[in-house]
Amino acid sequence: MKVRLVEKGPIHYTDDIVVDHFPFLLGRHPGCDYQLIHPLVSRRHCQLTEAGGEVVLRDLESKNGTFVNGNRVGDLGVLHDGDEINLGCFVYRVSFSDN
Predict the structure, then answer these.
(1) Burial of 17 (0-12, 13-18, 19+ CB in 10 A)
(2) Tens digits of per-residue pLDDT, 51-87?
(3) Strand order in 17-19's β-sheet?
C-alpha cells in the first residue's frame, strides 16, 4: 500500500508527500523523513506507522497539535482514504493506493 499526502492548502507550500516506508517521521528537524519548514511545525511533529494493515498517525507531543478531520489526535489515530490532516499551517488529504 502506498500513502500519498496531497497538499491542499489555498497556497501550495510543499509538494505532495509520498510515504514509501514506515515509520515515517514528519517535522522541522533535518533528520525527519520529510521536513516541513514552518515555525508552527514541531521539530518532530508526528509519525506515520503501519499496524495490522492500517496506517496510524501518532502525534509526537507537538506544540501546536496534529489534527485529523478537524479533531486533535490525542496519541494515535487510524487514517482512512480521504481524511484531512492538519500539521501547523499545512493541510493534506490522505490518498491510499495499492501500487
Answers:
(1) buried
(2) 999 999 999 999 999 999 999 998 889 999 999 999 9
(3) 17-19, 2-7, 90-97, 84-87, 66-68, 71-72
Task: Look up residue 79 and give its DSSP letter.
Answer: E
Task: Please check the confidence at residue 22 and state whether its pLDDT lies above 90.
Answer: yes
| DSSP code at position 32 | S
Amino acid at 17: I
Q: Please state whether beta strands 2-7 and 17-19 pair in parallel, antiparallel, or not at all (unpaired).
A: antiparallel
DSSP letter for 14, please.
Answer: S
Region of 14 on the Ramachandran plot (φ > 0 left; ψ -120 to 50 alpha; else beta): beta
In 3D, which of 51, 8, 48 has the Cα closest to residue 26?
A: 48
For residues 10-39, average pLDDT: 91
> What pTM was estimated for this model as a whole?
0.91
In the predicted structure, residue 13 carries a pLDDT above the cut 80: no
CA 50/CA 56 separation, integer angstroms: 6
Lookup: cell for 6 = 496531497
